[in-house]
Structures are given as structure tokens and as C-alpha cells.
Write a structure and sequence with these properties.
By secondary structure, this protein is an alpha+beta fold. The protein contains 10 helices and 18 strands.
Length: about 450
């Protein structure tokens, strides 16, 4: 008799394979759409980052009170002071004599014993109202004795102090002294105490002039523009001066010998600034170019994530046109030269020549991306980028919201497809399990018939 063999397949794996084939077409399309949506989100995030980085560079180079054109200010004796100059500073030389530096007031108070002190201690700076220290609240350990260290801590943390006065404790021969130091220099910041609201031994100790030592006398700075005695005398409470338009000077020591301040164009710093502008633009341009690259199917090179996106291509084109359009002249006059692909290069020699002919022309063309009114190329670029990168209503935000809705829909469609797969799997599993059972029974019956009626039977 013919022999019926038992099935060798597994119903579970067979059902899984058939169910997978059942949904394969739909799953392939859904997976492609999901991957494309994820790639689009990543591309939009990358685009936003690239635009933000360029905006940041624009603001740092051309923002409020910033300029690509740089000037330097330096003293003939750099130990006397330091100086900086903005683009608006007029080139020239100035002679100074530093008669006196401004100093910050400092007092030391001795004879201060720990005791039961209450009330309020008023600390003043110059003729100002000062601030009050609550001595009762200063007693932080809860006992009846206010220590000098508790007093110092209370002064540092007093409302209204805002670090104008710092208090510390210096121990001399085993006795603590309270040291008060003003943060700001000048006679208008001289420290004084008002103990009229203080109760306890602290009042008598602070009022005793023998216990008070002015360790640093508050002084104003005295600087002469020109010769000492016959030039222009300048007196102020700080050692930092801004009397010359666009120039900031800080004096570090006195000098009876005149020192010369020279303000002049800084070609090296200007070149660095312009190169930074060129590099920042090229970095953005390269990032956008890669996103819209068409790719090469013949060589297997994939296109950019936005290779077929006309909106991103419009952004690419607009960036180039905004850079090249100016009514005030040509960037090429200052060595900023555009290539056919839209990137920039810098010709240092032409930049130097252009600045020599018109030092303010470059800034007039580039303009500013900061302040209430943006100007020039930088202002136009910044305004256009904001149309894309604005966190409230920018095009990138709008696009991401649309992709997010699509992803929600794709997730729902995936859930439905998973249910279709599960349904098909269960149906196939039931069918092939039943088929396996039928074949098993047939194999069993065949074996029984062979046993009863086989050729070996007499």
C-alpha cells in the first residue's frame, strides 16, 4: 500500500508568511510614506538649525552696535591702560596724563564683641539712602547673642544691598574685625553707618571713632586730556572713561608722563569679520544645496531630502538674490565675490583697497540684522529667514505641523494594517492547523491499514 507521510510544515510560520504576503503591498507603501515623513521632519529640523546658526552669526557680526569694519584703540604704554574703539570712532591721537585712579571705599571696625543687639543698622554709600540690616533677624542661631560673623552674613544678604557692599570678618590677635568694602569706586560710594536704630553694645562700638579705621579712602579718578594743569581736567568715580565718542578707556595706573591713545582702522580684525560673514553664508548655502540636490539615479546617488520641493528651492534662490541685490554698490568692490554656484570668496587685497577708498561703504551695504530697524543686506537676509524660521508662524513650523498630522494618520493606518495582518494570520493559522490535524489522522489510518493488510501478512 502507498504510505501517507505526516506534514513537515509548521502552521504558525506558514500562517505568518502568508499573512505577511497578504499585507506586503500595503505595508511597503506605508513604510515608504512613514520613512519619508520622518526624513522630512529631520530635514526641517536640520534646515531650522542651519538658518538659526546663520542668524546667530549675522547678529554677532552686524547686530546692534556691531560692525564688520573694525577699529583699534591702544595706548603707547599698555601698562597704563587699555582701550577699545567702535566703528563710529574718529581716527586720531590723544594725549593723557593720569593723575589719580579711582578707589573703592573700605572700612574696618574693631572692638565688636558678640552681644544682645537688636534694631536696624543702616549702611550708606555717599549721600544715597543706603539699605538697612535687621539685627534681630540676623541672629540666625536663635540665642540672645548676635555674633560678628552673623552680622557680616546679614549685611551681605540684606534686601537692597545687591552686592554694593561686601562684609567679611578678619581676625587680628584673636579679635574679630568687621570689614566693609564698596563694590564701586569713587567718592560717591564712600561707606558710612547710621546706628540711630541700633540697640545694644554694637551701637557704642560702632560709634566709637577709635574702633573705626578707613583702610582704603574712596577717591575719584583724575585724568588730564593734554598737559597736566593746563589741559582739560576730567574727574569721575570710575577708572573707565567714554569721553571720546566710540572709544572706551580703562586706566590701570597713574602716569605723570603723558601717554598717547591712538585710534585707527584695524584691517586684520576687519578681514576676520568679513571672512566670518563669508564662511557663515557659505555654510548655510552648502546645507541648503545638499537638501535640494537632485541626486544621480544612474550612479545610485540619492537626492537630498527636499530634492523635489519647490519651496525649499525658492529659499535657495532667494538667499542668493538677496545677497547680490544692493542699491548702494557692489560687494565685489570690497573683495566679497560670488561664484556661479552662489558661494562667496574673499579677496583680501580688494577688501583693503575698498576700505581705504570708503571705510564706511562696506557697513552701509551689509547693514545690520539687529536693533528696531534692520538695514542693508544683513537686514534683508534676517527678515527673510524669519519668514521661514519664526517659531510662531514660520514656514518651517507650518510644514512640521502638516507632517505631524500626516504621521498621526500614518500611525492610524499602520494600526489598521496590523489588525488586518493579525486577522489574516489567525485565519491561516486555523486553516493550516486543521489541515495538519487531517493529515495526521490520515497518516495514522494509513499506518493502521498497513498493519492489517500489509504485504507481510499471511
Amino acid at each position: 500500500m502507498a504510505t501517507i507521510t505526516s506534514p513537515t510544515y509548521d502552521p504558525a510560520s506558514t500562517a505568518a508568511a502568508l499573512a505577511q504576503k497578504y499585507v506586503a503591498g500595503s505595508q511597503q507603501m506605508l513604510t515608504a510614506s512613514t520613512n519619508q515623513a520622518s526624513a522630512t521632519v529631520k530635514g526641517l529640523n536640520d534646515l531650522s538649525s542651519a538658518l538659526s546658526a546663520f542668524q546667530s552669526s549675522l547678529n554677532s557680526l552686524t547686530g546692534l552696535n556691531k560692525s564688520l569694519f573694525s577699529q583699534s584703540a591702544s595706548f603707547s604704554d599698555t601698562t597704563v591702560g587699555t582701550a577699545t574703539a567702535s566703528a563710529s570712532a574718529a581716527p586720531g591721537s590723544y594725549s593723557f596724563v593720569v593723575e589719580q585712579l579711582a578707589t573703592a571705599s573700605q572700612f574696618a571696625y574693631s572692638g565688636l564683641a558678640d552681644g544682645a543687639n537688636t534694631g536696624k543698622l543702616t549702611i550708606k554709600l555717599g549721600t544715597g539712602p543706603g539699605f538697612q540690616v535687621d539685627l534681630t533677624a540676623a541672629n540666625t542661631d536663635g540665642n540672645a547673642t548676635l555674633t560678628v560673623r552673623e552680622l557680616a552674613a546679614a549685611i551681605n544678604g540684606a534686601t537692597g544691598n545687591t552686592s554694593l557692599v561686601s562684609a567679611s570678618v578678619v581676625t587680628v590677635d584673636g579679635n574679630p574685625q568687621l570689614v566693609l568694602s564698596a563694590r564701586n569706586t569713587g567718592t560717591d560710594n564712600k561707606i558710612s553707618l547710621d546706628t540711630s536704630l541700633v540697640s545694644g553694645p554694637l551701637k557704642a562700638a560702632l560709634d566709637n571713632t577709635a574702633n573705626v579705621k578707613e583702610t582704603v579712602i574712596a577717591k575719584d579718578a583724575i585724568v588730564w586730556l593734554g598737559a597736566q594743569g593746563s589741559g582739560t581736567k576730567i574727574v569721575q568715580g570710575s577708572n573707565t572713561f567714554s569721553n571720546i565718542d566710540g572709544v572706551k578707556m580703562t586706566f590701570n595706573k597713574t602716569s605723570a608722563t603723558p601717554v598717547t591713545l591712538t585710534v585707527a582702522a584695524d584691517s586684520s580684525a576687519t578681514t576676520t569679520n568679513v571672512q566670518a560673514f563669508v564662511d557663515a553664508y557659505n555654510k548655510l548655502k552648502s546645507a541648503v544645496d545638499a537638501m535640494v540636490a537632485p541626486g544621480d539615479p544612474a550612479s545610485g546617488k540619492a537626492g537630498g531630502v527636499f530634492s523635489g520641493d519647490s519651496g525649499i528651492r525658492a529659499l535657495q534662490s532667494r538667499l542668493v538674490s538677496l545677497l547680490r541685490s544692493t542699491a548702494d554698490g557692489s560687494l565685489a568692490n570690497y573683495g566679497i565675490i560670488g561664484a556661479r554656484n552662489g558661494t562667496l570668496t574673499l579677496d583680501n587685497a580688494r577688501l583693503t583697497k575698498g576700505l581705504a577708498a570708503d571705510p564706511n561703504g562696506l557697513d552701509a551695504m551689509i547693514g545690520s540684522a539687529g536693533g528696531t530697524t534692520a538695514t542693508g543686506i544683513a537686514g534683508k537676509l534676517d527678515a527673510y529667514i524669519k519668514e521661514w524660521n519664526n517659531s510662531i508662524n514660520g514656514q518651517i513650523k507650518t510644514r512640521k505641523e502638516a507632517v505631524s498630522k500626516l504621521q498621526i494618520d500614518l500611525t492610524a493606518r499602520q494600526d489598521l494594517l496590523d489588525k488586518r495582518y493579525d486577522s489574516a494570520y489567525q485565519r491561516y493559522l486555523l486553516q493550516f492547523t486543521e489541515l495538519q490535524n487531517v493529515q495526521s489522522r490520515m497518516t495514522s489510518n494509513s499506518s493502521m491499514f498497513d498493519a492489517l493488510f500489509g504485504n507481510n501478512k499471511d
